[in-house]
Please model this.
Amino acid sequence: MFGLKSALIGLGALALSAGAVMAQDAAEGEEVFKKCRACHQVGETAKNAVGPKLNGLFGRKSGTVEGFNYSESNKNSGVTWDEATFAKYIADPKAFMPGNKMAFAGLKDEKDVKDITAFLKQFGADGKKK
Model:
């Protein structure tokens, strides 16, 4: 009986440490964002480029950044960006939103997705860090 109890405690500790490893890390997300910089900008001086600026992404309706020419599928998707929709989109943009213009294979690593989410959530619509 003691062995089983010890094993269960050990598994619980392992699960807790795995959860800690999966925590969002904005600094790591800034590194992941380097993959996105060819097309997207964030921050107070961000401008639309090949892709729209990503300031204030979370809580914003898809296809609504002023001055960016979105695909019809993006404009009409009905998506409002939150962590769950962004995670699905960034993992496979073409599968999540067929017909969109984003030519990116996607982020497959769950930790990268969590980290880039933490990084992007720092920026308000004005580009200032919250």
